[in-house]
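Homework help board

Subject: predicted structure for assignment chain

Our instructor gave us this sequence and asked us to write out the predicted structure in token form, then describe one feature. I got the tokens but I'm not sure how to describe them. Can anyone check?
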Amino acid sequence: MSTESAEDRLIARYFGPLAQHPGALGLVDDAAILVPPTGCDLVLKADAIVGSVHFFADDPPSAVARKALRVNLSDLAAKGAKPLGFLLSLALPDGIGDDWLAAFASGLQADIEQYECPLFGGDTDRTPGPVTVSIATFGSVPHGTMVRRGGARVGDRVVVTGTIGDASLGLRLRKDHAASTRWGLDPKMRDHLLDRYLLPQPRNAIAEAVRRFASAAMDVSDGLAGDLAKLCRVSGVSATIDAARIPLSAAAQAALGHDASLIEPVLTGGDDYEILASVSASKLEAFRTTASALGIDLTEIGEITVGDDAPRFVGRDGLPLKFARPSFSHF
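My token output:
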């Protein structure tokens, strides 16, 4: 009679093939081994995603897996870190079967290869609640070079990658399909917003440039307004942002054209997973040029200023925008 448990068989079948790094020890031990690169610091990050909170029950399992890893990779990118690997903890309710697990593992494998971020181990559990996926990532930076939130200086320019607000609007579309018609979206625009919520696009390609040029940085996960406030608070500064300069996709622009009140969820709704950074004026053009060569748009949206007030977002009329809820929060 085999002494192998059902959990052992599940791990061996679905996750053993993903753990190809020698330090993972084939997932047959209680721990793994990682030798950090010489002269580097380890950068550690852990984030979880929970069913019916961060994703929908009918989302493809492959997308759930990729989202779980990518939200962590996004943080590493904002710190200027190169991914080294991750640990996975997975809590599964009754009813999750082989098809779901196979698709989940397939999605995870795709991103392990795309981002060169190997699986080192983790844990599997049963839960009476929804599917919960917790990932702890680790990356590396040359010693003493991790980009922190607290480095913004007065006079720095505030920049963001990509476009802002798409995922927040995509979430609204998932909850209210008729909004697509009200916002005047064509099918391509609708799908763009839905995809941005379903599957983040972490900016790991720009991590080294963040380390070279940014004085402070973080990823935009809880909304641009709220995350900029966090960066400024830790740095002991404030900021003034020109809302008209914030980069928006064609889909977001169309939605705002039909409903101007959407500017609040665009700026406060979260799930963008773009990089927000401050950079000295003397380094701005080099940062933008480097990002462009990597295929990533970088947009200047404002300036770091003296003070300890929350950042000001100024509208086209020159008046500050007011937000009922400046940042997403679980609590």
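Reply (TA_rk): Your tokens look well-formed. For the description, you could write something like this. The first strand starts at residue 40 and ends at 50. That's the kind of observation they're looking for.
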